[in-house]
Amino acid sequence: MSKFYKFQSTWTPYFEYFDNPWSNYKKFISYLKNKNANFITYSDVIENGYKKKEINIILDHHIDYYPIETMIMADFEFKQKIKSSIYLFNEFNYPDIAQINWNLSDLDINFYKKLEKHGFEIGYHMNVVGLDNSIHNKDNIRSYSSNIDINNERLDKFFARDISSLKSNFNIRTLIPHGGGEGNHQYTNWQNKKEYTDIRWVYNGIKRKDDDPFKKWKNFSDSIGTNAHVYKFEGSSSYIVYRDHLMNKAYTAKRGLHHILVHAGRMGKGMPYNKYKKYILPGSKVIKSVNYHKKFSTRKFDLNNYSLEKTKNQKNYIDLLKKIKPNYILTNSEDFIVSSLFVNSIIPIYFHEKIISREEIKELYGVKRPIVKHIINPKKLNLEELKRFYNHYYSNNVMSIFENADIPITLLCLEYKNKELSELISLIEQCKVNSVSFIIYNSIDTSFMGYKALFKFRQLRIQLRKLGIDIDEIKLVKNKYFLKKIY
Predict the structure, then answer these.
(1) CATH assignment at residue 264
(2) Phi, psi dihedral angles at 18 (to 5 degrees)
(3) DSSP string, 18-47
(4) Same domain, yes or no, for 248 and 318?
(5) How many domains does the chain have?
(6) What does the pLDDT profile of the chain (487 residues) look like in tens digits?
(7) Residue 8 placed within a domain
(8) Is residue 467 part of a domain?
(9) Under 8 Å CB-to-CB from 425, ≥6 apart: which residues?
(10) Which of 146, 166, 189, 405 could form a disulfide with 252 if both were Cys (CB 3.0 to 4.6 A apart)?
């Protein structure tokens, strides 16, 4: 059994993962357990060993460069009495990666055998192309062709050796090709050999057939970096997620099959390394960990930065924001989005009162990844340039988000023009039912100025009182209704 370097890699350039991504992962697991989710393996799905009308989670971990972090994550899951599918290399030999080279025998085999005995799945993380030095460039740094010679005998030998080694220790039933731009998914010769008919390719490059049980899963991968995850709901509503990816997967998980790929090293910061000292090389430091938050200009959130009129009881609102981190705030106000960006405790969701088209989704995917070190003051950039730093909800009904997902929205901040009183009352009723704090502005057309505006405003107050809806603040200023309720 060898010792390894700690190896962390920063996942997303957002506040909620800077300080302690490990704490976010534990929160994620706890939340799913509280939703009574079933944690299953790939082989459970193949054998129909799961309840299709319940929430089923395939937790998927690839060892990659993270032997220590993978062990810590798997040990945590074992103690939580859940299970996952863990994919191991038989050999790690990458001169351009700041991790020691190792073979399967260098891992704590007994630890992984214990996991397998308790329902975890141990599979093969196939990296035969990555191990073939003839495909590396002259500096021995990974640089691979998009056209791999799949008849290369060296690849066949690597595969046979790896499978034999892994099977001598584990019940290997599934494999997943390693990514990293290596082209491992191009090596498919093994599928034509009788001795490997008991092994199933389950993810990463496989072309699924109509009868494949994985075809209907809802896929989640932490490999997409800052690209969007798109969740489509009944009624044509769509939720586009850039921020807090992992927790939003938990918030949106409904019954059915869900695949969730998490690389342990991306959650490494905050892990209890001190409990695993015997596996860690003496004096080793974290190989890769970037604190992007030092690049940002952080500031306190001021309600007056975006409000149309100054409001009372701001302290109550700020106290509310401190209770939940992060705070999800649903708004259709561009001013609010800009004002709340890069405030540690806030994740804005921009509400678009329409159904998103396929073309618009493609545009959202096409936004360039943010170069974090260049984003210092959000006020100097326009909303279009910052769209990867907040989430988007598209629907004809703002309140439908509460039916579609369990996102813990702290505040609804909405601006309208000439909204009918009946619509305003209905909206406030739904806010009351969902115990959602709200700030609503309704600008009135000039034709309703004077007595007519005052009359309509009084009608609104009377109707709300009749419905037993208590409003912290309700006033008419400069032809704008201002309604506020902080729970």
Answers:
(1) 3.20.20
(2) -70, -55
(3) TS-HHHHHHHHHHHHHHTTPEEE-HHHHHT
(4) no
(5) 2
(6) 789 999 887 666 676 676 688 999 999 999 999 999 999 999 999 999 899 899 999 999 999 999 999 999 999 999 999 999 999 999 998 877 888 999 999 999 999 999 999 999 999 999 998 888 666 555 555 666 667 777 888 999 999 999 999 999 999 999 999 987 788 988 999 998 999 999 999 998 888 877 888 888 999 998 876 678 899 998 899 999 988 889 999 999 999 999 999 999 999 989 999 999 999 998 776 765 444 434 443 434 443 333 333 333 444 444 545 554 678 999 998 888 877 776 667 889 999 999 998 888 877 766 555 444 333 444 555 666 677 788 999 999 999 999 999 999 988 999 998 888 889 999 999 998 888 889 898 887 655 556 677 777 888 888 888 888 888 888 887 777 888 887 7
(7) no
(8) yes
(9) 460, 463, 464, 467
(10) 405
Which residue, of 293, 315, 336, is where some domain finishes? 293
- Work out the angle between the directed axes of helices 245-252 and 21-34 (0-180°, nearest 10): 0
- CATH classification at residue 429: 3.40.50
Q: Are residues 284 and 325 in the same domain?
A: no
Q: Is residue 11 exposed (0-12), middle (13-18) or buried (19+ Cβ within 10 Å)?
A: buried
Domain limit, last residue, from 261, 293, 325: 293
Range of the domain at 463: 300-485
Q: Are residues 336 and 237 in the same domain?
A: no
CA dihedral over 72, 74, 77, 79, signed as positive or negative? negative
Tokens of 162: 């790896």
- Does 182 share its domain with 320? no
232 and 84 housed in the same domain: yes
Which residue spans within 418-478 are E strands per DSSP?
437-443, 473-477
For residue 326, say if its preceding peptide bond is cis, omega within 30 degrees of 0.
yes
DSSP for 291-325 reads: -GGGGS------GGGT-SS--S-HHHHHHHHHHSS
Q: Are residues 32 and 179 in the same domain?
A: yes
Could you tell me where the beta strands, DSSP code E, fall in 28-173?
38-40, 55-62, 85-88, 91-92, 102-103, 121-126
Question: How many whole angstroms separate alpha carbon 132 and alpha carbon 158?
Answer: 8
Residue type, 216: K
- Residue 5 in domain: no
pTM value > 0.85: yes
Residue 115: is it exposed, middle or buried by C-beta count within 10 angstroms (0-12/13-18/19+)? buried
CA pair distance 163, 148, nearest whole angstrom: 21
Do 320 and 486 contact (CB within 8 A), yes or no?
A: yes
Radius of gyration for the chain, computed over Cα atoms and rounded to the nearest angstrom: 26
